[in-house]
Amino acid sequence: MDYLPISKVNTVVYCPRRFYFEQVLGEVSRNHHLIEGQNLHQRAYTERNERSDVLVWSDDLGLLGVIDRLERRAGSITILEYKKGRAFAEANHSDAVQLAAQALCLAASRQQTATEGAVYYHASHSRREVVFDQALFAAVYKAVALMRQLLQASQPPAVAVSKQKCSGCSVIDACQPELWRNKKPMAEADR
Ligand code: SF4
After folding, report:
1. Fewer CB within 10 A of the end CB, N or C, for the chain?
2. How many Å lie between the centroid of ligand 1 and the Cα of residue 46?
């Protein structure tokens, strides 16, 4: 079994084309967004000792990854994930599905149940709570199926996300989304 990083669940939900460029073509450009994100994760660990880095996995899903932090309060467990940016509507869903994937892996590998998660966004110093439900867990399985499908694909999927999502994307130079959008009628390209 080839295990995929849990973080790629977020990537494929955010943009399947980005997943293809990163995971199949190996296009990871260390742009400033990526480097800042890595630095913030590191600072949370070394300066504030906030991270606990729990390794989790699921043989069923074929996923493996690290949970930034587990908060334990009054018998309940919350999964905490640190993000560099600020919350915006279109990224919220992919972040939530990533947390749900971490919850499934936590249950499978450590027999611990987390009923909710939270994303801490460094740029806005805000925290967003996510309650896990069946729809989120179903989205994880759907994302994993899509990843396996894309790994077998001979070419990347078409550009199918909004311009806001492309802002700051680490593979934008390889992707060239505007070339794609310019080939389409305006109304369709602005979706
Ligand atoms: S630039 Fe936009 S369309 Fe291209 S991979 Fe990144 S998010 Fe997806």
Report:
1. N
2. 32
